Amino acid sequence: MSTISNAINAYQALSKAVTLENTASTDPAATDHAASSFASVLKDATKTSINTMKNAENETAAAIAGKADIREVVAAVTNAELTLQTVVNVRDKVISAYNDIIRMPV
Fold first, then answer.
1. How many domains, in total, are found in the chain?
2. How far apart are alpha carbons 42 and 57 in whole angstroms?
3. 94 lies in which domain range?
4. Three-state SS across the chain?
């Protein structure tokens, strides 16, 4: 159930950022707010990713101690794996965009 709520929270945060970004494109005064909002979206996404990884570690430790169901462990580890793949893909896109910017003629 927490996976669904994490996805809903991430979608809501992204939706707010997109709304603010659209407002910023029409209102120059909103640029600072949109930039700080984008930073907060990244910060929230990072916290969520870290919490997902910690949850998988805790579930695995609980399973080793015999206190967790194997289905819960598999779900937590799968969720952590998907989160890690997403983080790696975003990182690769950021690096690619940075490299494209560096290659631009001045």
1. 1
2. 23
3. 2-103
4. CHHHHHHHHHHHHHHHHHHHHHHHHHCHHHHHHHHHHHHHHHHHHHHHHHHHHHHHHHHHHHHHCCCCCHHHHHHHHHHHHHHHHHHHHHHHHHHHHHHHHHHCCC
Tokens standing for residue 84: 């890690």
| pLDDT tens for each residue of 49-64 | 999 999 999 999 999 9
Q: pLDDT tens-digit profile of 14-53?
A: 666 555 555 545 555 555 666 678 888 889 989 999 999 9
With vertex at residue 92, the alpha carbon angle to CA 33 and CA 11, rounded to the nearest 5 degrees, is 45
